[in-house]
Structure formats: C-alpha cells, structure tokens
Specification:
109 residues; mainly alpha; Helix Hairpins; two-stranded antiparallel ribbon; 2 helices; rod-shaped
C-alpha cells in the first residue's frame, strides 16, 4: 500500500472513530437529561400539566401522557447507545489490527 493510501485510510479510521465518539457523548448527555426528567416526573401527580418541546413548539400535556413517551425515548436512546458503543469497539479493533498488519508506527513530533 502506498504512503498516500495509508495516510488516507488512517485518517478515515480516525475520522470515523472521532465521529462515533462524539455521537456517543451526545447520546449520553441526552440519556442523562431524560433520566433526570423521568425521575422528576415520577414524583409528580399523573394529572398535573407539563410542557414538552416537540420540534421547537411547546406542547401542553399531562404528566401521565408524557411519562410513557419519555420512557420509550429513554429506551431507544439506550439501545442506540449500546449499538454505537459496539460499533466503536469493532472499528477500534479493526483499526488496531490494520495498524499491526501494515506495520504502522505512530511517530510523535
């Protein structure tokens, strides 16, 4: 493999890893926000009014109507987070194997 091709492939791996890491961190933040809201609403009466942001608009609902939706979103975020974490691990392992197979050494300046 030529040096140019090696550099391109190395940079592609790095970019993919950085993008996945960024997305995982964003989802962890979203998951934590949902967890806090769910915990807060669980201590609140089911009939109490609450507001939920949907596409930039505030929608008025009851806590009883909102909690199931938030629980579902929390579960979906968790599943996506697990999937992306597995994908990141796979790509990192693939990257390390590629570096070993191609005998690539990182030289820090």
């Amino acid at each position: 493999m030529s040096q140019k091709n090696t550099e391109v492939k190395y940079n592609q791996y790095q970019t993919t890893i950085n993008e996945l890491t960024s997305k995982i961190n964003q989802l962890k933040s979203d998951q934590e926000e949902h967890k806090i809201v769910i915990e807060t609403l669980s201590k609140t009466s089911e009939e109490r009014r609450c507001f939920r942001m949907i596409g930039g608009a505030l929608i008025e609902k009851t806590v009883g109507e909102t909690k199931p939706v938030l629980d579902l979103k929390f579960q979906n975020i968790s599943k996506t987070l697990d999937s992306l974490t597995n994908e990141l691990t796979k790509i990192i392992n693939e990257f390390e194997k590629w570096k070993k197979d191609e005998n690539i050494k990182i030289i820090k300046q």
